[in-house]
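Table 4 source record.
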Amino acid sequence: MTPPLMTKYILEQVLPQQDLGLLVIVCLCTVIVPIIGSAVILVETYLMRFALYIGGQGRADLFNGIQHQSLSWMQRQRSGDLITRTLDDSEEIIAFWTVKYGGCYGLLSQSRSVL
C-alpha cells in the first residue's frame, strides 16, 4: 500500500515544488519500505515455524514421558486428564508466539501492518 501513496505524494507534492532532494528521498522510501516489509514477513515466518517446531517437540517429549511411566502409575491416572493436559500444555507453548498473547509473532504482525 505504501508505494501507491508515495507515488501520489510525488505527483501531487514533490514534482510541483521541483525539489530534487525530496524527490530522491521519497523515491528511496518507495523502494526501501517494501523491502523492509518483506524482511519482516520472513522473520515472522521463521518465528512461527520455530514456535511450531518447539510445540511439536514439547508434545513429543510429553507423550514419550507418559509412555515410559510404570503400569501402576498409568492405572492411578485418568487417561482423559493426561491427554488433555499434554495437548493443552503444548498448545500454550505455540500460543505464546501468536497474537493471542502478544508474543513476538504478534509484535511483528502489527509492525508489518504499520509499514
